[in-house]
Amino acid sequence: MTPTTVVDIGRDAVEVLLIVSAPMLGAALVTGLIVSIFQAATQVNEMTLSFIPKLVAVFVVIIVGGPWMITLMTEYIRRLYSAIPSLIG
């Protein structure tokens, strides 16, 4: 196994990680922005107010996009496991 192969495997792993986590992080970001605008407009300065909407938004994204996320991760793992013989030899 060459250093280039290790870098390629690591790059692919980070790429899959970013693709899978982007919808959840995006939903939390948008929800936090909406709650912050609401708090600024109403002058409600409660720090815990944004936690529950973010949690619900991320949960909804996991329910809706969960099968796609699992498929993407299992395809990556299958490719990685199927490449083991060529990586060893």
Question: What's the helix-strand series?
Answer: HHH
Supply the number of structural domains. Answer: 1
> Count of helical segments?
3
Q: Tell me the major beta sheet.
A: none
Task: Give the percentage of residues in beta strands.
Answer: under 5%
Low-confidence stretches are: none
SS-derived structural category: mainly alpha
Distance between the termini: 8 Å
Radius of gyration: 19 Å
Please state the overall shape, judged from the principal axes of the Cα atoms.
Answer: elongated
Task: Give the overall pLDDT as a whole number.
Answer: 92
Please report the total strand number as a whole number: 0
Family: Belongs to the FliQ/MopD/SpaQ family.
Keywords: Bacterial flagellum, Cell membrane, Cell projection, Cilium, Flagellum, Membrane, Transmembrane, Transmembrane helix
Function: Role in flagellar biosynthesis.
Transmembrane segments: 16-39, 51-70
Main attributes of the structure:
89 residues; mainly alpha
Describe this structure in words.
With 89 residues, the chain is mostly helical. The chain has one domain. Helix content is 87%, strand content 0%. Helix 1 runs antiparallel to helix 2. The longest helix is centred in the first third of the chain and has 40 residues, at 3-42. The chain crosses the membrane at residues 16-39, 51-70. InterPro entries: Bac_export_3, FliQ.
